[in-house]
């Protein structure tokens, strides 16, 4: 009994700041928006119907899914060599290397976008290099478009992938790779036939985490896209604060939540299948 | 096995991508130029001076610092007893409660921000201190509970039982024996809650107003509309605060002890 009492303050904060708002969000998604743009109390699926039958929603969903899947895959592919290097590094350097790999988590997303502006902008580092070397005469547009969002999102997902892979690969027995090398396998063959299959569950877990985070990312798509790249998250934000259509924002947010729950269930199913091994 | 050249090269690419943005922010914040161009035409402290002269941004910095301090205090005060109960006591629904207290971390901050806007706006609590405190405390509490549960779990139960045997009440034993031993965890939890609130952008974007705004929100808006090195100086301020807090924790308790592992 005393245990419940001790948890009461924390539960109260979550009740007021989490449960109640999320329930209200679900409730408001069943309200109706009048032609004047005002919200009308109702129990209707009109808002959902409007969203689901709108082709723009499906474009958004497709953009969001392909963008996050691509960036998640790239993030995993780049995080893997980083993690493998950490794993094979001298123990003296291992801690520092691991810290550097996850340090970006301490830097707010907006601050990192500012850094990307200085790298990818028309007068940024890469364009200065390209024009300086005479490769390009005009600046290449690398930001305020989908390219910028792809680069920024990949980078912002990488530290999470590193976290998952560092944990996942630490349990991987390096003697198996040494045995393969002793038996005459080349480096690439050892990697493809031994390391990669052993790392597959961790790679999948990292990909799914990055995908889920990418689907709901807002700051990077908004800022790196310069307001020209539209994903589900930016659309929810605009519906809530620009057009102030609360039922639509709530319904789209509920659909996003539903999709994320589905992704997590799928992750649970795949993880469950691998557990017995 | 020694890493081959290909692995080294690929890892170098990965690290460059991870670290380049923060390094560029550092360099550009000292730029003497008017734009976010690289290489900068010269170096100066003019944008840090401009930052200090900017009343709106300084007010936002003060708000963010106060908010983060308040949130860290609230999250610790609420999270500490809950974590003690979860780590030490056996009661019906303990597992479910532990899951519930971690639940906000499962939802995207965008959805949480929207939900809080819909809940707080009609009550005129959006863009107020209580509203922002509640919103940030809600995201910070799960971190406080998680870290403190580990910290309490790391304190040997025998010590508390010895105190009981010596006649201490349960409350006194928890307060005088277990809590001081878990203090490094509490410091780390407080620091993390401070940073979670200080860096929180998306939820705040839904909840701020013209009269009450936070530093990350002001930085977001600035980056959305203008591109001069002032925003880099601003970003460095946030990075600097995060680094200072991390180094403080490291000096006070050390990371290993703070996280409760040896």
UniProtKB/TrEMBL annotation, chain A:
Membrane-spanning segments: 60-84, 96-119, 157-173, 194-219, 248-269
Question: Which residue range or ranges hold the ABC transmembrane type-1 domain?
Answer: 61-267
This protein's record includes keyword Membrane: yes
For this protein, the record's PANTHER family field holds: ABC TRANSPORTER PERMEASE PROTEIN, INNER MEMBRANE ABC TRANSPORTER PERMEASE PROTEIN YDCU-RELATED-RELATED
Q: Which domain of life is it from?
A: Bacteria
Signal peptide (UniProt feature, chain positions) = none
Which family is it part of?
A: Belongs to the binding-protein-dependent transport system permease family. CysTW subfamily.
* Compartment(s): Cell membrane
Q: Which organism is it from?
A: Falsiroseomonas tokyonensis
Main location as per UniProt = membrane
Q: What is this protein called?
A: ABC transporter permease
Which residues lie in coiled coils? none
Which Pfam families does the UniProt entry name for this protein? BPD_transp_1
The question of whether Transmembrane is a record keyword is answered with yes
TrEMBL record, chain B:
Q: Does the keyword Transmembrane apply?
A: yes
Q: Does the keyword Membrane apply?
A: yes
Location in the cell reads: Cell inner membrane; Cell membrane
* Keywords for this protein: Cell inner membrane, Cell membrane, Membrane, Transmembrane, Transmembrane helix, Transport
How is it placed in the membrane, per its record?
Answer: Multi-pass membrane protein
Q: Which Pfam families match?
A: BPD_transp_1
- Give the CDD domains listed for this entry: TM_PBP2
Q: What residue intervals traverse the membrane? A: 65-87, 99-120, 132-152, 173-198, 230-249
- Principal place of residence: membrane
Can you give the residue ranges of the ABC transmembrane type-1 domain?
Answer: 61-249
PROSITE patterns, from UniProt?
A: ABC_TM1
Q: Which family does it belong to?
A: Belongs to the binding-protein-dependent transport system permease family.
Protein name per UniProt: ABC transporter permease
Organism taxonomic ancestry: Bacteria, Pseudomonadati, Pseudomonadota, Alphaproteobacteria, Acetobacterales
């Amino acid at each position: 009994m005393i245990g419940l009492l001790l948890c009461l303050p924390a539960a109260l904060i979550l009740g007021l700041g989490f449960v109640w708002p999320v329930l209200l969000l679900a409730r408001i998604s069943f309200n109706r928006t009048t032609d004047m743009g005002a919200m009308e109390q109702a129990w209707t699926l009109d808002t959902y119907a409007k969203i689901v039958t709108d082709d723009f929603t499906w474009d958004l969903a497709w953009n969001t899914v392909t963008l996050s899947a691509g960036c998640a895959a790239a993030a995993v592919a780049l995080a893997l060599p980083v993690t493998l290097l950490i794993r094979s590094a001298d123990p003296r350097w291992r801690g520092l290397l691991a810290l550097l790999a996850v340090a970006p988590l301490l830097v707010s997303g907006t601050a990192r976008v500012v850094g990307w502006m200085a790298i990818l902008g028309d007068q940024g580092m890469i364009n200065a290099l390209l024009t300086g070397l005479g490769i390009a005469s005009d600046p290449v547009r690398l930001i305020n478009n989908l390219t910028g969002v792809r680069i920024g999102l990949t980078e912002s997902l990488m530290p999470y992938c590193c976290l998952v892979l560092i944990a996942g690969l630490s349990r991987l027995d390096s003697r198996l790779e040494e045995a393969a090398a002793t038996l005459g396998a080349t480096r690439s063959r050892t990697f493809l036939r031994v390391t990669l299959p052993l790392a597959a569950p961790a790679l999948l877990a990292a990909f799914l985490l990055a995908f889920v985070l990418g689907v709901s990312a807002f700051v990077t798509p908004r800022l790196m896209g310069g307001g020209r790249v539209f994903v589900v998250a930016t659309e929810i934000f605009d519906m809530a604060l620009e057009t102030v259509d609360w039922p639509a924002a709530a319904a789209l947010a509920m659909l996003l939540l539903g999709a994320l729950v589905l992704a997590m269930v799928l992750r649970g199913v795949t993880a469950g299948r691998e557990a017995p091994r | 096995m020694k890493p081959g050249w290909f692995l080294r090269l690929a890892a170098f690419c990965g690290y460059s991508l991870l670290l380049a943005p923060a390094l560029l922010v550092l360099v550009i914040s000292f730029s003497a130029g008017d734009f976010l161009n690289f290489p900068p035409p010269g170096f100066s402290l003019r944008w840090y001076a401009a930052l200090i002269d900017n009343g709106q941004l300084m007010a936002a910095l003060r708000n963010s610092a106060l908010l983060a301090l308040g949130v860290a205090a609230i999250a610790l005060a609420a999270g500490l007893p809950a974590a003690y109960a979860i780590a030490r006591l056996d009661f019906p629904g303990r597992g479910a409660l532990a899951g519930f207290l971690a639940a906000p971390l499962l939802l995207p901050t965008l959805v949480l921000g929207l939900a809080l806007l819909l809940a707080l706006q009609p009550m005129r609590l959006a863009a107020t201190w209580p509203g922002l405190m509640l919103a940030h405390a809600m995201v910070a509490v799960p971190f406080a509970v998680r870290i403190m549960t580990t910290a309490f779990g790391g304190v040997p139960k025998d010590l508390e039982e010895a105190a009981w045997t010596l006649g201490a009440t349960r409350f006194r034993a928890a307060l005088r024996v277990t809590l001081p031993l878990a203090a490094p965890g509490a410091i780390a939890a407080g620091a993390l809650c401070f940073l979670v609130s200080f860096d929180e952008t998306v939820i705040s974007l839904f909840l701020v107003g013209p009269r009450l705004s936070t530093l990350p929100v002001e930085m977001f808006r600035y980056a959305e509309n203008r591109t001069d090195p002032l925003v880099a100086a601003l970003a460095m301020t946030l990075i600097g605060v995060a680094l200072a807090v991390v180094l403080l924790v490291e000096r006070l308790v050390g990371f290993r002890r703070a996280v409760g592992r040896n």
